[in-house]
Amino acid sequence: MKIANKKVTAERLVKDALAKAKHFEDYNIFTYLNEEGALKKAREIDARIAKGEEVGRLAGVPYALKDNFLSPEGETTAAAHILEGFTSPITATAVKKLEDEGAIMIGRVNMDAFAHGSSTENSYFGPTLNSHDKKRVSGGSSGGSAVAVALDIVEFATGTDTGGSIRQPASFNGVYGLKPTYGCISRYGVVAMASSTDCIGFFTKTPEDMDLLMSIASGKDTKDLTTLDDYYNNSKATKAQKVGIIKDFDNDSVDKEIRRALKHKCELLKSKGYEIVELEMPALKYALAAYYIIVPAEVTSNLSRYDGVRYGFRSDDSVNLDELYSHTRDEGFMPENKRRIMIGNFVLSSGFYDAYFLKAAKARTLIVEEYAKAFSKCNFILTPVAPNPAFKLGEKVNDPVAMYLEDVMSVPLNLAGVPGLTIPAGKTDAGLPIGLQLVGPRRSDKSLIEFSKELAE
Ligand code: GLN
């Protein structure tokens, strides 16, 4: 490690990262800069090294924290007005694990409010701009995280992925982004969106860094009973022979340059002796519809706790308790949050539960089975992350269905709980990053990261 070798001090690294964060202020990446706290931690680490004490595997490494991770440093707002003024008394397990290894949070980063969105335009603080073209979106919901890493402000950033929020912004900004197997990393202390699909993950510049972060963050947590045993650190990367591509995704609704990038990577794999297998996965066509029923149903339940009494913002324009709730929720949520609350209540209501929620749950089972079938024919699947590269700011924000269609290739993984890794795969002729998604069976995260090195050029 550079710091432990005394080549550079933690203080220097943190100062540089803070200076870069300020330099790129116009991208609207940070919701909070942790100047004092970060410098204090850096000096402590430098002092320990000077005394010859042991330091952690991430000692002095600056990172950016998506604003839906709870920690007492700065307000945790999830980029929503309704959480403004909320400082957490607790620290998310993932944050604690990173910081126990010496990582230093230099700031909290922007996102779609409550992680609802695919462009970061649903943030109460305004959109984060794309790292390669300021007229375009950063992707979402973890747009701030992706841009902070792409612009080299920090070494890594945290993210959450409920339906693509790590993988899609990673692809729009040309960095690695991993959504691990569901249950790999504790969700304790992370603002819940949809509890059955939420995953914690990271943005990095290399697969090696991703592996290091995964080995630190994964594992059982008694505070999150959906966490799995620590399979990540107890597994070895297995060798792959066959890589699947999904026929159903190779059509005109997918950008030509993305399809070209996918073909190019398939050629690369063939030249290295891998076999490319064509898969038919017809059940995936139900994924988007099922996702936009199951997720709002869980969202509506998770957002019910924001009532103006317990956390953050409270509307002062109320004469009784009912008004306090309704005014706070009306003023505090973004339009997309409200849309999901309404859809969620609708699909769960007694007259419609069977027609919508139950059907979606059945479609989810079909999707799980479809992946199991696919992985009996190949080791990994390589697909686009989204149908297009970064789109223009304002292009889809007033058309919810167009925005939801962004997620057509990312949400099936969340419904099935399987891991997906976005890998950089070149650029379009206009210079926009292209990302592809490497998908593996549950618990194959380590092999997936290892295999992604085969695709690097
Ligand atoms: N874009 C998806 C949605 O809006 C995914 C969001 C996420 O992964 N947090 O639901």
Describe the structure.
With 457 residues, this protein is of the alpha/beta class. The protein has one domain: Amidase signature (AS) enzymes (Alpha-Beta Complex), CATH 3.90.1300. Helix content is 36%, strand content 13%. Strands 1-3-2-4-6-5-10-11-9-7-8 form an eleven-stranded mixed sheet, with helices on both faces. Strand 2, helix 3 (93-100) and strand 3 form a beta-alpha-beta unit. Helix 1 packs antiparallel against helix 2 (35-50), helix 8 packs across helix 10 (335-348) and helix 8 (287-302) crosses helix 11 (354-374). The longest helix has 21 residues, at 354-374. It starts with 9 loop residues before the first helix and ends in a 5-residue tail after the last helix. The model has no long low-confidence stretch (mean pLDDT 96).
Alpha-carbon distance between the two ends: 25 Å
Question: What integer is the average pLDDT?
Answer: 96
Count of extended strands: 11
CATH topology: Amidase signature (AS) enzymes
Number of helices: 14
Q: Classify the secondary structure makeup into a structural class.
A: alpha/beta
What is the annotated CATH architecture? Alpha-Beta Complex
How would you sum up the major sheet? Answer: 11 strands, mixed
Determine Rg (CA atoms, Å): 21 Å
Bound molecules: glutamine
CATH H level, superfamily name: Amidase signature (AS) domain
| Shape assignment | globular
CATH class group: Alpha Beta
Q: How many discrete structural domains?
A: 1
Instruction: Spell the H/E element sequence.
Output: HEHEHEHEHEEHEHEHHHHEHHEEH
Percent of residues in helices comes to 25-40%
Spans where pLDDT lies below 50 across 5 or more residues: none
Which strand-content bin applies to the residues? 5-15%
Strand order in the largest sheet:
1-3-2-4-6-5-10-11-9-7-8
